[in-house]
Amino acid sequence: MYSTSFGTLNITDYDKALSKWEGIKPIRGRSDQNTRPLYRRGDDSKTIRQLPNGGITLRLWHTDVVTFNTDGTLDLEPYASVSTRAFVRAVLGWGSGVHAHWSDRSHPLPDNVTQVGGHYYHTPQFATLGKVDGSWSLLGGSEPFELTSLDKKLTKAALEETGYNQFKVWLTTQIRIGLDPRQGDRWRSTPYDWSHREVSQYLTSGPEGWGELVRRMSKRCEIDRELETLRRAVYKCAGAATETAVPYFENYKAMTNAFAAMRKYG
Hints:
Elements: H1 14-22, E1 36-37, E2 46-50, E3 56-60, E4 63-68, E5 74-76, H2 82-92, E6 98-101, E7 113-116, E8 119-122, E9 127-132, E10 135-140, E11 145-150, H3 152-162, H4 164-176, H5 196-204, H6 207-215, H7 223-237, E12 241-246, H8 252-264
Antiparallel strand pairs: 1-2, 2-3, 3-4, 4-5, 5-9, 6-7, 7-8, 9-10, 11-12
């Protein structure tokens, strides 16, 4: 399901959302007359409904992606998928100043980056917006971007001492010959959140520890992303990584350059 699946709605405030909901006839015979089809009648994957508190929420499958509240605020529920990103674009329109950079495809940025008023924020769980001088502004939900700079000499030594390079060769070889030992987790497409201490412990334990590592990996996650998280944990354990928290980026180029610099030595 891609952007071509959604017609542009240009719903930019509560009144327009309420008017949209009131203008759609409920499906006759259904017990739930509150939830109504947003596009094609009978299509329950994209709906609009009124909440008990009066808010209007637009839902894609099982996620209330965009909610307009009676006090004029807007709530977004980030979900890392191409279709959810396109759904936000279709609901709010290009001219809203709000754009979702949420994607489950491989990309050099953290999941769930939301652009509001030209600034780029990390909004992993939710984003609450309000109008300031007629334009949307982020009120809550952002968490700092975690940037890492590396000492190249220490990183090289840490990879050798822990046996990371041997583990990488073993794992990639297993995958290449069709004996992928990772789990078939059909839902998780992001890397496992490793503790730097446990990664170092498992790597230095040899094949027995390697088995513990791969059991926490998912076949749906690209192997390069999984290995990158392992390397960063090794670097952190060795004291080779310096972390910096950045509240937001003022433009897309600054954001992509910052993460490209991290991946250069990742």
